[in-house]
């Protein structure tokens, strides 16, 4: 299998990361907002510099200037991005700052990602890497499925409500402060051969109702791939040098977008067994797929020009 496990490739940073780490190991309603740690961020940037090949870039970077202008004018901004690995957010920030100059750096500094608890609680080193970026931590609804004992389930549901209510308050405060909320609409990393991991979550419709404008970001290529032998072990993820092309859509008005999708369903869609909320999210995912497809051949050409093998085939992508 191509690639070196993350924990092996960057074990050299473990000692420094342990010293720099500040974020909580366990999440409760008091610590859902996790501000970026600039110390660990520097290490993430060094890892990206190691693995992003020539030709990596952010297409449509200028759309983020328009997005920033709207944030500065008081609009509530949402970023919806494809999700392949734990390098997605770090790569976006890195490319924003390198391709967008001052305005890209300003957008990067305003980003607040919605993240699951696993990044904090699964492994101290994973947590240390994740805390290089500002996050609001949530209790993912799908995580409740692991609790089958009735009493345990009831306790976890109570815990999830407290955490997610606190997360909503933190997100509301971030919006008012002019920060941009980044969400992965699939809610999980895409796993080849499991199309359900690329389906948009119905809950994303709620975000469309809470924000004024959004921008869609697709990802072609990735420097970190899920290890099929250990898909749940984030330190086993495989580090791969790659050309990574991210693409930003023009700014989209959330209300207009949502209304257009719902209007296209006709009258009384629920009676016909159509879920309008899911349909709005499905349209988001369709647009991301279309955007992704436009840059697939561009990235492949960049790899060929470098004399590199396309790693996608190795990982079934």
Automatic annotation (TrEMBL):
The lineage of its organism: Bacteria, Pseudomonadati, Spirochaetota, Spirochaetia, Spirochaetales. Signal peptide: none annotated. GO terms for molecular function: acyltransferase activity. SUPFAM superfamilies: Glycerol-3-phosphate (1)-acyltransferase. This is Phospholipid/glycerol acyltransferase. Residues 77-222 form the Phospholipid/glycerol acyltransferase domain. The keyword tRNA processing does not apply. Transmembrane segments: none annotated. Keywords: Acyltransferase, Transferase. Coiled coil: none annotated. InterPro entries: Plipid/glycerol_acylTrfase (IPR002123).
């Amino acid at each position: 299998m191509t690639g070196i496990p993350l924990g092996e490739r960057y074990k050299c940073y473990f000692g420094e990361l342990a010293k720099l780490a500040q974020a909580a190991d366990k999440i409760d309603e008091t610590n859902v907002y996790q501000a970026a740690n600039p110390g660990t961020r520097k290490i993430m940037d060094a890892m990206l510099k190691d693995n992003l090949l020539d030709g990596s870039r952010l297409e449509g970077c200028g759309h983020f200037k328009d997005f920033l202008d709207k944030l500065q004018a008081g609009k509530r901004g949402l970023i919806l991005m494809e999700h392949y690995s734990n390098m997605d957010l770090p790569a976006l920030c890195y490319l924003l700052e390198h391709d967008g100059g001052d305005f890209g750096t300003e957008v990067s500094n305003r980003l607040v990602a919605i993240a699951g608890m696993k990044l904090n609680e699964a492994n101290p080193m994973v947590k240390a890497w994740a805390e290089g970026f500002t996050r609001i931590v949530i209790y993912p609804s799908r995580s409740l499925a692991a609790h089958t004992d009735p009493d345990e389930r009831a306790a976890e549901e109570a815990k999830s409500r407290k955490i997610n209510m606190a997360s909503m308050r933190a997100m509301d405060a971030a919006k008012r402060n002019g920060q941009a909320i980044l969400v992965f609409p699939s809610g999980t990393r895409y796993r080849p051969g499991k199309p359900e991991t690329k389906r948009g979550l119905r809950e994303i419709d709620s975000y469309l109702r809470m924000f004024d404008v959004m921008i869609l970001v697709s990802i072609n290529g990735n420097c970190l791939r899920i290890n099929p032998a250990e898909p749940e072990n984030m330190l086993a993820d495989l580090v791969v040098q790659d050309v990574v092309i991210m693409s930003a859509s023009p700014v989209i008005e959330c209300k207009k977008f949502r209304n257009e999708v719902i209007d296209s369903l006709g009258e009384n869609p629920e009676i016909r067994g159509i879920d309008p909320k899911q349909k709005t999210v499905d349209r988001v995912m369709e647009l991301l797929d279309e955007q992704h497809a436009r840059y697939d051949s561009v990235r492949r050409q960049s790899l060929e020009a470098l004399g590199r093998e396309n790693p996608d085939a190795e990982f079934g992508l």
